[in-house]
Each structure stands twice: as structure tokens, then as C-alpha cells.
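TASK: fixed-backbone design
INPUT:
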């Protein structure tokens, strides 16, 4: 069993045995950068992700995949890392949360995922497109969140959200909910859903840091 499979199982087990949301907490940390690319017809072209993982987890990945014990990851080893990450995140939609006017927006799986190992840190890059054309109107939210709470994908600065060719009639805002307040405000609607389906997306949508685009409706 590889490290990512073990971690996915541990994440699910940790959530299932928790007696409250306050006990669920991350064990893996990554700093994220997200670029929203816009087409000339003012539809969303793609989401471009870069995740830089913490030193401790990166070292664990190095030990697991450095088969020739040269203390680095060569191209073949990085390819195995990429495939392992790609497969492990598939059931979680690659931690992507996209909504338009409160409704979920389906995203295609990335065609490929690239892993790099630089300065002692694992870096993961991938790109994902909307399943259907996503027109810029109303309120569109883009967030990255692990529904199992095992991995914390964080945006340390608002500038880590980038929009390519944002139209003039769209307002951009980074929303950072306070987790305790968000849970308290939605406790009545979260309780059953959380315990019946710990990997559901309801709580993820509420507490995730999001890029919010508010655009004038178009015909």
C-alpha cells in the first residue's frame, strides 16, 4: 500500500471516529496558488493549480519514492509520485470547489498532473476545465479544500488567487471564513450530513477560503 493510499484511509478513519468537527484537523499542509484563466468570450477556460507541500510531508514522500536512495527524486520517481497523487485525489475532485449562484459547477479531471521536488518541497501542478461552458455572470466561487480535513490547502496571501483577463464588470474578492463561526452558524444543517457522509462537500464549501467573482448578468 503506497503512502497516499494509506493517508487517504487514515483521513477517512479519523473523520469517522471523530465525535465532533472540532476534533478534525489537518496533518498535511500545502501553500496554494490558483489562476483562473478566462476565454475571450468571457467564459472560464480553466483553473491552474500549484500546491507547495510542507517540509515534513515532502520528506516523507522523498523517503517513500526515492528507490535508488540518492536523496532526490529523478524523472521516473516523480512520474510515480504524479500518478499516485492523481489517482488518490480523483474521488475528491482534486479538492476543487466551484459554485455559480450557489449551485455546484462540474469540473473535468485534469488530463495530467505534474510533480516536482525543489528545495526540499514537493510541488504539484495541474489544470482543470469546466465540464460545461462557465459564463461569467452572477456570483462564482472558486475554492480548494480537502473534505476529509486531512490536508490543509492554504492561500497565505490574497495575491495567490489570480484571474487572467478579468472583465471590467466583474468584482474580485477573497473570502476567508472563520471556521468556528461558519460551523456555529450552520450547525443545524451540518450535523446529519457530516456524520452520515464525512466526505461530503457541504462543510467544505462553508469553511474554505474562496475567490469570489461577482459579475453583471449577461444575456
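OUTPUT:
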Amino acid at each position: 500500500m503506497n503512502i497516499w493510499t494509506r493517508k487517504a484511509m487514515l483521513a477517512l478513519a479519523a473523520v469517522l471516529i471523530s465525535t465532533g468537527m472540532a476534533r478534525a484537523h489537518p496533518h498535511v499542509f500545502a501553500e496554494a496558488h490558483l489562476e483562473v484563466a478566462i476565454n475571450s468570450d468571457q467564459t472560464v477556460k480553466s483553473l491552474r493549480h500549484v500546491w507547495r507541500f510542507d517540509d515534513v510531508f515532502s520528506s516523507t514522500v522523498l523517503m517513500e519514492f526515492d528507490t535508488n536512495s540518492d536523496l532526490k527524486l529523478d524523472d521516473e520517481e516523480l512520474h510515480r509520485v504524479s500518478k499516485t497523487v492523481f489517482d488518490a485525489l480523483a474521488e475528491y475532485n482534486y479538492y476543487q470547489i466551484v459554485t455559480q449562484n450557489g449551485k455546484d459547477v462540474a469540473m473535468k479531471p485534469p488530463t495530467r498532473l505534474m510533480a516536482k521536488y525543489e528545495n526540499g518541497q514537493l510541488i504539484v501542478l495541474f489544470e482543470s476545465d469546466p465540464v460545461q461552458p462557465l459564463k461569467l455572470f452572477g456570483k462564482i466561487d472558486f475554492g480548494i479544500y480537502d473534505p476529509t480535513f486531512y490536508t490543509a490547502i492554504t492561500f497565505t496571501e490574497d495575491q495567490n488567487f489570480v484571474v487572467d483577463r478579468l472583465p471590467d464588470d466583474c468584482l474580485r474578492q477573497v473570502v476567508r471564513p472563520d471556521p468556528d463561526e461558519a460551523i456555529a452558524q450552520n450547525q443545524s444543517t451540518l450535523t446529519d450530513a457530516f456524520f452520515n457522509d464525512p466526505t461530503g462537500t457541504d462543510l467544505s464549501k462553508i469553511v474554505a477560503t474562496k475567490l469570489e467573482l461577482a459579475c453583471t448578468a449577461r444575456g
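COMMENT: Helices lie at 3-17, 55-65, 75-89, 179-185, 187-196, 202-207.
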